[in-house]
Design a protein that fits this description.
mainly alpha, ABC transporter involved in vitamin B12 uptake, BtuC, two-stranded antiparallel sheet
Length: 322
């Protein structure tokens, strides 16, 4: 049964993506496979994947970080303002600093003060959005022309591959990556193994904030500037990319990076295909919700039926042995 669960778990995101391709390929009479449309799908998926590369650390612990949309807007807005005043070279450092500070605050609230991650991130989401509205005051801040090269597909592809390799190594081949997933399996077991859970949580939220900020810079360069509604609903898109890819809502060892990488273009394809089919905004939102609910339900059903090995216990034994 465990082998069957592993096979189903591994194939789920690919099956959903393949099903989407068939449905929209037929419904749009092949328009979805148009070369320019495929390039647009890739371009729109980049920011979602980048942000998801950070959020997956939080999700694998069973936590929630819904600051991404507002954080993307805050970090991108400040990056654009600084870029206009002091040069484009400062855009990424400024955005990364803001993202790291946001993650540090959110992680501290959750780990040290025991504020549930959903409530803490919801409060910060609201505060960040209000802050963006205040600093921009309905104006649009354009990005410097010298940084527009990062919107070229060749650059985005290379940058995305580099980030996936770095995050993939951290997530899959380091003790830190194992610990965040083990916390999602059994936090008490990880604590009893002598691991500083609070520190792991804070670092995970910092990484999540940094990646959201980097996604913000790529986003404003793609659209040309920062405005009040920048990043609206972006956090939901990132979460949908993870969950529609089969990452368990409760986190744990079933959290795999490839699921995010497959899930991001899947959710973008869903939106793109519905637009090509002429669906209205309300219908698109409704179908997105139904697809997400069905995918999450199937994932939970699968894990409930076949069970998940409590790998955190194994981690605890290993740490004690060392």
């Amino acid at each position: 049964m465990m082998k069957m669960k592993i096979k189903i778990d591994a194939l789920l995101p690919f099956a959903v993506l393949f099903l989407m391709l068939i449905i929209f390929g037929v419904a749009t009479k092949g328009q979805v496979f148009n070369g320019q449309n495929l390039l647009n799908l890739f371009s729109q998926s980049v920011a979602t994947i980048i942000a998801g590369l950070g959020m997956i650390f939080v999700a694998s612990m069973g936590g929630t970080d819904i600051t991404h949309g507002s954080l993307l807007a805050v970090s991108a807005a400040f990056a654009a303002i600084v870029g206009q005043s002091f040069g484009a070279v400062w855009m990424f450092p400024v955005a990364i600093l803001i993202g790291a500070c946001s993650g540090l605050l959110l992680g501290t609230l959750n780990a040290k003060f025991k504020v549930p991650s959903f409530m803490a991130s919801l409060s910060m989401l609201i505060a960040f959005r209000a802050f963006v509205n205040w600093i921009l005051n309905s104006r649009v801040v354009m990005v410097p022309e010298e940084i527009t090269f990062i919107d070229e597909n060749s650059f985005k592809l290379v940058a995305l591959i580099v980030m996936i390799l770095i995050i993939g190594y951290l997530f899959d081949f380091t003790p830190f990556g194992t610990y965040v997933r083990a916390i999602g399996e059994n936090e008490n077991a990880v604590k009893h193994a002598g691991i500083n859970v609070d520190k792991i949580k804070i670092i995970a939220f910092i990484i999540s904030g940094i990646m959201a900020a980097i996604a913000g810079v790529f986003t404003i360069v793609r659209i040309g500037g920062a405005s009040n509604n920048l990043g609206s609903g972006f956090e939901m898109k990132v979460m949908m990319a993870m969950f529609i890819g089969g990452i368990p809502v409760q986190g744990g060892m079933g959290s795999k990076l490839y699921k995010l990488i497959v899930g991001a273009p899947t959710i973008i394809l869903l939106e793109n295909g519905l637009v090509l089919c002429g669906a209205s905004g309300g219908i698109t939102q409704g179908i997105r919700g139904v697809v997400l609910l069905a995918t999450v339900y199937f994932t939970l059903l699968m894990y409930s039926r076949f069970g998940v090995k409590k790998a955190a216990r194994k981690i605890g034994v290993t740490e004690e042995a060392n």
